[in-house]
Amino acid sequence: MLKDLDHLMSARGIGAVIVPMHEQLHASFRWLTRGAKVTRGYAIKLVDREPLLVSYPMEREEASATGLETRLASEFGSEQIFRDAPSPAAGYAQLYDAILSDVGAEGSVAFFGNVPFQLYHGVAHELEARGRVVHRSNGEDLIQLARKRKDRWEIDAIRSVGERTELVVDRVREVLRAATIDGDRLLYEGRALTLGDLKQLVSSEITRNGMIEDHDTILSQGRDAGIPHSRGDASAIVRPSVPIVLDIFPLDRASGYFFDETRTFCVGPIPDELRTIHSHVLEAFERARDAMRAGNRASLYQELVCDLFEHRGYETTRRNPATLSGYVHSLGHGVGLEIHEKPSFSLSPANSDLIEPGDVLTIEPGLYFPERELGVRIEETFVVRDDGTVESLCRSSCALEP
Amino acid sequence: MLKDLDHLMSARGIGAVIVPMHEQLHASFRWLTRGAKVTRGYAIKLVDREPLLVSYPMEREEASATGLETRLASEFGSEQIFRDAPSPAAGYAQLYDAILSDVGAEGSVAFFGNVPFQLYHGVAHELEARGRVVHRSNGEDLIQLARKRKDRWEIDAIRSVGERTELVVDRVREVLRAATIDGDRLLYEGRALTLGDLKQLVSSEITRNGMIEDHDTILSQGRDAGIPHSRGDASAIVRPSVPIVLDIFPLDRASGYFFDETRTFCVGPIPDELRTIHSHVLEAFERARDAMRAGNRASLYQELVCDLFEHRGYETTRRNPATLSGYVHSLGHGVGLEIHEKPSFSLSPANSDLIEPGDVLTIEPGLYFPERELGVRIEETFVVRDDGTVESLCRSSCALEP
Description:
homodimer; Creatine Amidinohydrolase; 2 domains; 11 helices; 21 strands; elongated
């Protein structure tokens, strides 16, 4: 929430935040400019003021469509500045200095966002040479912190992506249900069904529903399902009686908000061992979901799930950081304009993130045994309600049967 | 080319280049790691050595699939480091220090890439406190410079994206050819055809052909076609006898390489004024294409096209930087893992980019008259051959008739 940014800036004595964007869109720029469809621009935020968007003539319409106050870089003398500047870094420093003076910024200035480091390292240095105080953080990202609690319209946007994501998952279910078993492989419409076929279906359904598959969907089976981030082998023929992990995280083309959901399927007879593991993952999922309350640290729920899995006899990275078997990752993460946001569920002592109303986050326990060709993960995206409990934005079954 | 990076590092006395990636993939990391499908990792490059990729256990398979030497962050003590570090910036500085010592890096270290500024600003400071010399550039990006000249396999990848992009353009042509004119609007399959219908077709065809529509395709008509970066109004019904600009720039899902192509269409009777403007744009396009030779400055061709358009009586931003009518942008840009790469065609005195064999670039003159509801642009992606001439990677007609 923008008002969180005001508080964070005030508390740190930061007078102005600058979030630049050079060709590569990043979440902080998108958030501060309300999704401005420009290829280059600079968002300037003073405490208790709406952001100002500085852009270029060719994109003046896209800039003003944001509803923000907009100015052209040329109004601050950009053409002359870059013509005369000894280096790009010196040029940008002079431009920002001019903008800051014009808008009456006082106090230190802080840069945030994923920006070309070699350029902004120089810009910070040149701004200091011009007498500006440049805020050097220890790694803390105020924009990321302010993006944690979502506004109502952001939650609505994520809910909409969730509804469309479920439609894509439905299509995969339909194909798996319609498939027939032929020995060690699945047939669909008379021919061998590959993971690549399912991936192609997922890609086209994501697009058809107005979303973007920014990262490759995880669609893996057997041993690959036992490695959490394995994308899966597209040429592999889908097999019966092995776990098939579908982890899908599209973003909305219009709003840029992500959604994240994982289902583990098994077609045909389900091995007892897989059935058991799945029931333990589902137990952990439901326990974390039912226990989660605003006001608690997120890491508390990672502890809860580690306790549960260890009690059940599984290895965890809490007890053995080197293990590749058992429960080997974090319980979840925030979701928004990035697929991994605050809060963090990490057990690191540095992590004190709280669950707060307005957070949108995933709960996604899993158990992995690559050596036994087994892996199960269940994941849904939740919103933390004003009453402190969580509400799932998914509607479909968590069962192994597709 | 990687060998260009070796030369650039040597010439600047840089012993090690570090390209980090935290969740948001960027072109420099993709290039240096050969498209590693990891969500976090650090690429380390010493002079005359292959890059080293440092990653995390969950993504060890994706890391090793690159064929690069890979190590886990934990081998350098990352767990202990981040447990004990007073801040993320201090932790990363210690981790990089450990990696650099381990691989025997000498001399200064330079960071490149689009990375979280507030974190790396601190990392640079902490590394300096540890006695390392951190290279501060004036904005020069050595990875971007090294990415300029493409290897054979990169050109093949871009050629392949180009062939599939043409298939998408073909589909738009088919719909426009099949449409019928009903007064001031086009009908397709019995109902009014909107720009949104065409955009949806483009999106689904891009996906179906294994590509990603990372930025919204430009599909605009009339007045919006007269504003180069206007995305167009999706709800607008396509009209006869006005220019329809289709500027499409997908990237390949597998390789990450972009392609860029623009066509301007007109359905039905073509107004004389539009016909004339189009012929002048085509003339500029062909003149630039035929004249282009390796060894010359790219800006020479921007001058050539400005000369031509001014001779024809049009305004240009060379003569009048504030103009919004006439020829208002650069002649083209390099294309690769980013849609806008080196060489730059800018007339800025700071731009001395040369056309070189192995460059992949666009030529895209245009003329814009928003007040007259007119805009025409023609764009193709070219490779600069070893003989110094350019070869188009497009095959389709530049005519106004779809």
